[in-house]
Amino acid sequence: MRNTRFCFPRPLLGIALLSCFASRVGAQSAIPANDNSPASVVQKYCKLDLDGARLSSQNSNNDAITALATWPIEPGWDTSVVVSAFEIVSKNIGPRESSVTVRYIVLGKMFGAKVTPSQKQKELVTFVLRKSHGGWLIERPLIAPHVSVSAAISALHGLLDDEKDPEQIKRLNAGIDLLVRWKNGAGSSKAP
User: Fold this and answer.
1) How far is CA 114 from CA 37, 109, 145, 170, in A?
2) Among 19, 38, 93, 164, whose CB has the most other CB atoms within 10 angstroms?
3) Of 32-41, 88-97, 168-177, where does mean pLDDT reach its minimum?
4) Distance (Å, whole) CA 12 – CA 56
5) Phi/psi of residue 104, nearest 5 degrees
6) Residue of 55, 63, 76, 79 lying closest to 154 (CA atoms)
7) pTM for this structure?
């Protein structure tokens, strides 16, 4: 039986996110839902992460993403990487340990209300999985959330709903405006 994990409340992103996002990424549906191969586990993890499952411990998909990894406690992330897409680019399958490399198309970073374009356009992450009694689980690395533009917009709207400080409201609106431009500009990460 797996330990359940508790996600610490995030000081800036502790708002429950909408579960439906318009972003479509790579070959998300190429792997059947009942497939428990290392590539399938990583695909499911990346898709849930993209949809914002790791932005809040209160997200309805938090338990689903927790079940795909070995770490018992998810840190409270203040920083997220905003991406337009991900794809699995390589797999190395072994009997007890496997690795799956994912390429992310990075648009920028989000630190609370601050959204900044990224100089780095692509990021490669190699996930290492260990076979357990229940199937394959991601063992490492534990990376910051990699979220879609839609998930990032939802997160900032959630923060805006409860904000009282005029300066913070201004920063949140500026972040939302930049993210909307990225979304409408087919993923352009250039600042206007």
Assistant:
1) 37, 8, 15, 10
2) 38
3) 32-41
4) 10
5) -105, 145
6) 55
7) 0.77
Domains defined along the chain, listed by start: 31-184 (3.10.450)
pLDDT, averaged across the chain: 79
Instruction: Say how far apart CA 102 and CA 97 lie, in whole Å.
Output: 17
- Distance, in Å, from the CA atom of 46 to the CA atom of 59, rounded to the nearest integer, reads 15
Closest CA to 101 of 125, 68, 117: 125
Pick 91 or 184 by higher pLDDT: 91
| Type of residue at 60 | S
Q: What is the DSSP secondary structure assignment for residue 30, as one 8-state letter?
A: G
Least confident of 20-24, 44-48, 172-176: 20-24
Listed in sequence order, the residues at least 6 apart from 161 whose beta carbon sits closer than 8 Å to its beta carbon are 15
Alpha helix stretches (DSSP H) within 1-148: 38-50, 62-66
Phi/psi of residue 123, each to 5°?
A: -135, 130
User: Alpha-carbon distance 63 to 192, whole Å?
Assistant: 38
Which residue reads 């390429």 in tokens? 103
Record the tokens describing residue 37, joined without a space: 């191969």
- Give the length of the chain: 192
The answer to whether residues 110 and 80 touch, using CB atoms and an 8 Å cutoff, is yes
